[in-house]
Amino acid sequence: MPKRPIAIALIIWYNICMNNTNDNTPYITRIVEDFLVRTRAKLLAHATRLDNGCLIVQPTSARGGYGRVTIGSRTYAAHRAAWELFVGPIPDGLYVLHRCDTPNCINWNGCLFLGDNSANVQDCISKGRFNPRRGERHPRAILTDAQVIEIRRLSKECGLSNAEIARRFNISATAISKIVGNRTRKTV
Questions:
Q1: Would you tell me which CATH number, out of the four given (1.20.1530, 1.10.287, 1.20.1740, 1.10.10), belongs to the domain 135-180?
Q2: What is the pLDDT of residue 11?
Q3: What pTM, to 2 d.p., does this model score?
Q4: What is the pLDDT of residue 40?
Q5: Residue 162: which of 184, 179, 143, 142 has the closest Cα?
Q6: Residue 170 CA: distances (Å) to CA of 24, 28, 117, 153, 176
Q7: Contact call for residues 90 and 5 (beta carbons, < 8 A)
Q8: What does the pLDDT read at residue 1?
Q9: Above 70 in pLDDT, residue 150?
Q10: 35 exposed, middle or buried (CB, 10 Å; 0-12, 13-18, 19+)?
Q11: What is the rounded distance in angstroms from the CA atom of residue 8 to the CA atom of residue 29?
């Protein structure tokens, strides 16, 4: 799904008006500029400046703690809206990243920067936020990594059947078979 930039239509309209010699140009230009001023003010009205320079938008109702802002009838990620309203359009294929590592920060003048997917992943890894949902970190995991190691040990060294091990750990024999056969929990 293509991204829907906030200001892109207004900027295109503004540029058309600036190149148009029609007598309505100053009026249309003023409407666009007034809209941008009001929208910027609305965004800043919901923000609080922290000592570290972050400009935090409240409330943070989006997944991952990202702030949200409604402009017209559409809802946008607040950091993306801030970038578009105060800096300009976000080019296709680029993301708005945070230097401060604070998801609800909208400080376009110090905390936000543009980067592609590779830069986004590298930024995530370098800040220690990369958490692959594997093994016991997966939200639906029943067994810890230590229990998986114990299951494999019981099967290999003690020669217990999958059904016996399954009763000990209160899971299915099929799940034990997959663990023992390294079809699941391969990273342990």
A1: 1.10.10
A2: 56
A3: 0.61
A4: 86
A5: 179
A6: 76, 70, 42, 17, 10
A7: yes
A8: 37
A9: yes
A10: middle
A11: 14
